[in-house]
Amino acid sequence: MPIPYNRCKDVTVLSLTPHGPEGRENGLWLLELENPGLAKARPGQFAMLRPASWGFDPLWARPLSICRALPDRLVFNFLVAGRGTSALTRLTPGDKVTLWGPLGHGFAVEPGVRTLMLAGGIGIAPFVEYAAVHPTPGQLSLLFGHRPPLSCYPYEDLAQTVGAESFQDRSAEDIPRFVELLEKRMAEHAGALALACGPTPFLRSVKAAAEKYGVRCQISLENRMACGVGACLGCVAETPDGERVQTCTRGPVFWSNEITL
Amino acid sequence: MDLRVTLAGLSLKNPVMTASGTFGYGQEFTPYGDLRTLGGIVVKGLSLKPRAGNPMPRVAETPSGMLNAIGLQNCGVEIFLKDKLPFLPWRETPILANLYACDPDEFAELASVLAAEEGVAGLEVNISCPNVKEGGVLFGQDPAQAARVTEAVKKRAGNKPVIVKLSPNVADIVGIAKAVEAAGADIISLINTLTGMAVDVRTRKPRLANVVGGLSGPAIKPVALRCVWQVSRAVSVPVIGMGGIASAMDVLEFILAGAHAVQVGTANFLRPDFSFRLVEQLPTVAREMGVTDLESFRGSLKTA
Q1: Cα separations (Å) of A144 from A117, A127, A219?
Q2: What is the pLDDT of chain B when averaged over all its residues?
Q3: Which residue, A222, A194, A197, A220, is CA-closest to A209?
Q4: Using the 8-state DSSP alphabet, how is residue B272 labeled?
Q5: What is the largest CA-CA distance in chain A?
Q6: Cβ–Cβ of B58/A233 closer than 8 Å?
Q7: Is B75 a catalytic residue?
Q8: Which of A218, A247, B5, B200 is the most exposed place for a label (fewest CB within 10 A)?
Q9: Which residues are CB-neighbours of B295 under 8 A, at least 6 positions away?
């Protein structure tokens, strides 16, 4: 009798490459895994990945945003941020990875509604799937802020389907100009929808601008998490009334007024 | 192979339970396995009122382990009874409530509320949490205080078994164990986390907002085994062992050292189907190790 439970899946690594010619030195990688049946993943959802070779060190799986859920493979773009993601870059094709997902809530999809996608750095990953599955991609536009070269990110894939602009901040001094541009795009989307994913300071700017210009806005959080299923309580975000809620199960996508940053 | 265990009137279909704070309220794990296959489920520590817990960051990965300083965030006993317990398969698998309070009176009140519930098979008293300012491990570090809390809970627990969960952060764990046994504990569970910390040289900051937290995972297994060995020989009540269990072989190790049952904790974070798989693997590994029944195997460690 088949087990009716959605057990963790052991999947095979299909490929792992730095993203673009400068991906390696910037720590930006493209990982493709066999798809164990996550066809119904919604853009903005994530999966927990734990290479079989890890043993107890690193101890936890790593949460990665699903960049593409294709029938034959799952695509992840990730940034090397610490020991775990660094260890992920040592995978080779054929290696086994234990995976569970899709997890959490994805981004709102509102056909026919003008939607502004705001991505900071590796926060671009979920928008690739978002643009690919959106029923009215003509309504989508992307503003992408980044520091490493554009070729390190799946930006070109997106620019082919949606109106896209990018902004490279070469130093901290450039950030106010980016925030200015972000505010301008927000102002143009008053009453429409904005979706954001990226570093926390970037999300703070997004949240403030959304409130200022009356844009309905969702933001996707990235937090350290051990389990991904709502049990460890290590990844909580805080709501305006002081409640602490799991980023993994109540998010990672929240309406910007649901949480404080 | 018959894996059933009975301890202080608590009948388990196998000795593998899930540890408090690592298995949510059970529901979180339903996509990954059948809760009814587990020996028991100890739910996240409950207090009379909801608690928001500590600020972030609250968890940090360490070699073969992790630190946490969650601070007993929980929904409170009322919401647990109303929204969480009805969902659990308590008729098929014992559900144990883990209790946290700031003083013996509050412990007693919490115990009476929970013991009155048909769906609660037993009470596990947390006198060993290192992450809260009041109570917690302070009760568990002094034999007299540990005994006072145990007595207060036992008086209000009706016919439900009272498990007292001990801290390893003490000079003499056997002394504490004997004190809670004398005060009426039906079962002793051990160990809670070891106090630890981690720092980041680059940022000059601690890795936990609370600075210190509780260390768990495979890194602490030798300490846990030592405590189970010492305590199970010194008391006559059954012992539930925990601390770094991450395989069926580990389960056997704890039983060999004297535990009647075990709890799987941090390993539930390694993969959410961990405990379910462990229950499936246990009979095979036991057979391979020549274990024919748990009763005679328990505590059979040969120490020349």
Answers
A1: 8, 10, 14
A2: 95
A3: A194
A4: T
A5: 62
A6: yes
A7: no
A8: B200
A9: none
Q: Identify the residue whose tokens are 């029938």.
A: A71
The reply to whether B201 touches chain A by the CB within 8 Å rule is no
* Among the partner residues B29, B34, B52, nearest to A229 by beta-carbon distance: B29
- Of A95-109, A168-182, B76-90, the poorest mean pLDDT is in A168-182
Residue A5 to residue B22, Cβ atoms within 8 A: no
**DSSP code of residue A36:** S
CA A252, CA A244: separation in Å to the nearest integer? 13
Cβ contacts (< 8 Å) between B52 and chain A: which residues? 242-244
Q: Which residues contact A4 (CB under 8 A, 6 or more apart)?
A: none
For chain A, the structural domain boundaries read: 5-103, 115-258
Residues of A in contact with B273 (CB under 8 A): 5, 7-8
Provide CATH code, domain A115-258: 3.40.50.80
**Looking at residues B213-225, what average pLDDT do you find?**
98
Q: Is A24 helix (H, G, I), strand (E, B) or coil?
A: helix
Query: How distant is the Cα of B178 from the closest Cα of chain A, in angstroms?
Result: 32
CA distances from B283 to A185, A214, A253, B94, B287 (A): 62, 61, 42, 20, 6
Which residue of A233, A243, A246 is the best one to mutate when testing the B interface, meaning the one whose CB has the most B CBs within 10 A? A233
Q: Please indicate if any CB of chain B lies within 8 Å of the CB of A231.
A: yes
Q: Record the pTM.
A: 0.95
> Is the minimum CB–CB distance between B271 and chain A shorter than 8 Å?
yes
Which pLDDT score is estimated for B137?
74
Residue spans of alpha helices (H) in B72-172: 76-79, 104-115, 137-140, 143-156
Strand-pair partners of A145: A120, A167
Q: Does residue B7 surpass a pLDDT of 80?
A: yes
**pLDDT tier at A233, thresholds 50, 70, 90:** very high
Mode of pairing for the β-strands spanning B95-99 and B199-200: unpaired
| pLDDT of amino acid A3 | 46
- CATH superfamily assigned to domain A5-103: Translation factors (2.40.30.10)
pLDDT at A138: 95
CA A214 – CA A217 distance, rounded (Å): 9
pLDDT at A6 over 90: no
Residues B223-282: tens digit of each pLDDT: 999 999 999 999 999 999 999 999 999 999 999 999 999 999 999 999 999 999 999 999
Q: Report which secondary-structure segment, H or E, holds A28.
A: strand A28-34
Interface test with chain B among A11, A103, A227, by most B beta carbons within 10 Å:
A227
Token pair listed for B133: 């300012």
pLDDT of residue A144: 98
Q: Which residues contact B210 (CB under 8 A, 6 or more apart)?
A: B54, B55, B58, B69, B71, B131
